[in-house]
Design a protein that fits this description.
The chain is mainly α and 107 residues long. The chain has one domain. The chain is built from 5 helices and no strands. It is elongated.
Length: 107
């Protein structure tokens, strides 16, 4: 249980770090648009992979003794972070669509 809490807190830290460097915004916007249009969630794979590799490339040369910054250069961890961000964005887009908003696409 403690391991789950530590991994979740590390994911939250990395999410905040990616809001700082600007990589979290495309993940949220792309996932929200996919959820809003009602497209299947499996289409989230492309933004997740692209942004995870971009973040891995950005943080690949970082050498730090802190676990938080050392994890940012790890591709499996980046996949978890951007999967989390994309699921949050998809849920927000889906909820906005289900709310019956004026701008929701009609079928």
């Amino acid at each position: 249980m403690l391991l789950v809490v530590r991994v979740f807190s590390l994911i939250i830290f990395a999410t905040v770090a990616h809001f700082g460097d600007g990589l979290a915004f495309p993940a949220l916007v792309a996932a929200a648009l996919i959820g809003w249009r009602g497209i299947g969630f499996y289409w989230l794979a492309a933004p997740i992979l692209a942004l995870a590799f971009a973040a891995n490339y950005m943080y690949s040369g970082v050498h730090s003794t802190a676990k938080e910054f050392a994890a940012l250069g790890n591709i499996p961890f980046e996949l978890m972070v951007f999967s989390f961000l994309s699921m949050v964005g998809y849920l927000l887009g889906w909820l906005f669509r289900r709310r019956g908003s004026f701008f929701a696409p009609r079928e």
